[in-house]
Specification:
This protein is 52% helix and 13% strand. It is of the alpha/beta class. The protein folds into two domains: 2-179 and 355-382, Glycogen Phosphorylase B (Rossmann fold), CATH 3.40.50; 182-351, Rossmann fold (3-Layer(aba) Sandwich), CATH 3.40.50. A six-stranded parallel sheet has the order 2-1-3-4-5-6, with helices on both faces. A six-stranded parallel sheet has the order 9-8-7-10-11-12, with helices on both faces. The longest helix is centred in the last third of the chain and has 26 residues, at 357-382. It is globular.
Length: 383
Amino acid sequence: MRALILSVSTGGGHAKAAEAIKESIMKNEPQSEVQIIDTIKYISPFLDKLVVGTYLKSIRYYPSFFKFLYKHSDEEGRFTKSSTLGNDYLTNKLYPTIVDFEPDILIATHAFTAQILSILRKKFQWHKPSLVVMTDYASHAFWVHRNVDAYIVSNEDMVEELTLRGRNKDQIYPYGIPISEKFLNISKKESILSKYNLSQDKKIITIMGGSLGIGNIEEILNEILQIKKPYQIIVLTGKNEKLYEKMSELQARCDHCLTPLEYCEEMNDILSITDVLITKPGGLTITESFITGTPLAIYSAIPGHEVQNADYLIRHGLAVDLGTGEHCGPLIENLLEDDIFLHSMKEKSKNNAKPHAAQHIFELCKELIEEKSLHRDTKRIDL
């Protein structure tokens, strides 16, 4: 199989989903050629800094502005023309690379690149199959376009959402967000605790703010530090170097067991020993917590996709909502002391897990390629 995966680096989830799909294809068909393109950066590093940089700054410093853009581009169809013009430019620039690679299938793991698949078919009569892998727990207009063969969604609720947006039900597959098979290989608990100098006798709270390490992490940590019971605390700071430095300074003078970690490759191990994960509701984080059965407490959702993710979690009883995290200490303490409720949350998380999404996506890719090939052969016979 020759597969071309189009992504954009606006967060860790899109790239990880692309890598998981590539891993699954190569495991099943080692002779395959799979290329992942960080689309905007590939076309123009300057444009990537402008677009991605503006996006990251807006969610961090101007969330109300991002909320406005997200809402009106979805509900009222605004900004569609400007989005189409931008993606039309990207498609024109990318088309020679696509032709040179000659993929059997095109896959998009980002909303920006989902429209590129549609433009390719409409403008260039690209006849090879196309697949969109959505990396959140609700939909948005930027993800959903005509001239796309199939959509992978994270949950069954999204099947109805996409049908209401005009997609055929038989195009929508609730396989889940793909994660690496490595994530399923969890180390023994004793070795994980030993690696991070943690005790088996005390519960563990993990706090994180996604790959960017953003959100009210310090405020939440201060709330937890006021709890008298000696919980163990892991703070994942992601790519936020300043936050890591602050946490390291605090670790030296903290009575609690505080373990700051930078961007962590062993999230499967960390989540497997975590009694409560306090996190922003990013799509990949939710997916990984389901697989490890880790109870979720969510805070400071980014307006737009994370708010929709949070709505899904709360609607299905899959998380406790901390709001901004202000005065959350007593709530966290009560949660950790209620073993029956914690066990119930663990079971609900596990029941929502879709650990084999990447394998199912590979199988669907094979089906789509075969169907397109058969259709072309049939047309030749008719001629």
